[in-house]
Amino acid sequence: MKVTGVLCNHCHDFIYSRARHDFHCCSCGNVCVDGGFDYMKTAFYDQNFETMEVEVDTTKKDLYDDWNKGKDQYGWTHAPL
């Protein structure tokens, strides 16, 4: 499935929100996302990030369960895209 998130150009983390109240920040703290699939809200120190859509190999339910049950297998990656 496709998810919309942000790529921080400082630390090269790609982050996205998995659920409505999944507030998620990159490792350097420059940019954060929130809103899950309901809306996309960003907070940032500077605008040195890119919004993009990527494909993840999972379902919407699995992403929600990942957040809701604290598994944290999805939602970000340190690897540059």
Describe the protein's architecture and organization.
By secondary structure, the protein is mainly beta. It has one domain (2-77). Helices cover 11% and strands 35% of the residues. It is built from one helix and seven strands, in the order ββββββαβ. The chain has one helix spanning 60-68, and strands spanning 2-8, 14-15, 24-25, 31-34, 41-44, 49-55, 76-77. The strands form two sheets. The protein has a four-stranded antiparallel beta sheet, with no helix packed on it. It has a three-stranded antiparallel beta sheet with strand order 3-4-5, with no helix packed on it. Strand 3 (24-25) and strand 4 (31-34) form a beta hairpin.
Q: Which series of helices and strands comes N to C? A: EEEEEEHE
Helix percentage range: 10-25%
The average pLDDT score comes to 90
The profile of the biggest β sheet is:
4 strands, antiparallel
The fraction of residues assigned to DSSP E strands is 25-35%
Instruction: Output the strand order for the largest sheet.
Output: 6-1-2-7
Q: State the shape.
A: globular
Helices, by number, come to: 1
Please tally the β strands and state the result: 7
- Unreliable stretches (pLDDT < 50, length at least 5) are none
| Global structural class | mainly beta
The total tally of domains equals 1
| Gyration radius, rounded | 12 Å
How far apart are the termini? Answer: 17 Å
